[in-house]
Amino acid sequence: MEKQEPFEIGGEKIRPGSRRVIRIPISMFPDHPAFFLSLYVIHGKLPGKTLFVSSTIHGDELNGIAVVKHVISSNHTKNLKGTLILAPVVNMIGALIKSRYLADRRDLNRSFPGIEKGSQASQLAYTFFHEVVKKCTHGIDIHTGSDNRINLPQVRSDLENEETRELAIAFGAPVVLKAKLREGSLRSAAEKEGIVMIIFEGGESFRFDTFAVRVATRGVFRVMAHLGMIDKSQCPVSKVPTVISSASRWIRSPNAGVFHAQRGLGQKVLKGCVLGDITDYLGISQTKVRANFDGIVIGRTQLPLVFQGDALFNIACVSEPEKAEEIILGLEEDEINNLPFDDPNTF
Ligand SMILES: [Zn+2]
Asked: How many angstroms separate the alpha carbon of residue 27 from the centre of ligand 1?
């Protein structure tokens, strides 16, 4: 059998069969590091794939912090094969200043693979990419909705690449959405290095969302089982098929005013049906918001006051909206009320 070597990261060597907190200095003050990139590394006794799970690349998107916490406290990784690198808060500067961006107002997820002596965002991107991402064979990056929008738990990935598609489906989120690569994003930079990566999106900024955190935590374990890193028998099996969509579109506000939604996440919409309405401030005049194609709601604004043209509902095109709704709402019911977790007290 192939022997497992020590794992080198952040200038340290981790022995096979051990786990360690690694802190890599970021953004120097004159005489000491201003911040550290905190990692939790589990290096298995036996060789296998190397997977990173990252969160809070956007400083206001926090769900992944809860996911990482649950993965660390779980028994599933006891006999891990390969190496798991958990990065709960990649953009620690944005998280501290309660911002999606860094203090230099740059978007970390448009700064990959980064520049060693570039801007604050470029430097952080460079460190994370070279110290973590490039050492991995696979990755999961956890996000939430932005701009006061909430997202149904969903995986976004390249569906053309077979390996990526299989990883996305193995995750077991209610929806898998085909997503274009954006220049400078972590996924784009990782793909150029041949690293198989998926994005998870769920919930909203500045909040922990129970449904999204549970789906993502199970998803991380399912991916590890799919990659042979943990025993399949320990893996929380997905009972329902994932709904796959190759396109999504926003339905925008036909008017300015007070928005009242009549459709929630995961619900079906049929062409012509009413999704909500916009009234004036007195509630006298009313404009209905209608769907112009069939699908399911995968994202929605949380703002009650909107301008004409504001994005209201993100609809994923699916071939059988009724069936998709049944699958998704059933999964939500199970996830919130029925399925046990390792430690139910932590949820
Ligand atoms: Zn994000």
From this structure: 22
**pTM (whole model) above 0.85:** yes
Query: d(Cα 68, Cα 19) in Å, to the nearest integer?
Result: 14
Tell me: do 206 and 253 sit in the same domain.
no
Q: Which residues surround ligand 1, an ion (CB under 5 A)?
A: 58, 61, 143
Angle at 31 between CA 26 and CA 33, to 5 degrees: 15
DSSP class per residue in 43-59: E-SEEEEEEEEEE-SST
User: Cα(193) to centroid of ligand 1, in Å?
Assistant: 21
273 plus 197 within the same structural domain: no
Q: 138-193: per-residue pLDDT in tens?
A: 999 999 999 899 999 999 998 999 999 999 999 999 999 999 889 999 999 999 99
Q: Distance from the CA of 91 to the center of ligand 1, in angstroms?
A: 11
Are 37 and 160 contained in the same domain?
A: yes
The helix (H) or strand (E) run that includes residue 300 is strand 295-301
pLDDT tens-place string over residues 285-343: 999 999 999 999 999 999 999 999 999 999 999 989 999 999 999 888 888 876 666 54
End-to-end CA distance of the chain: 39
Tell whether 307 is covered by a domain. yes
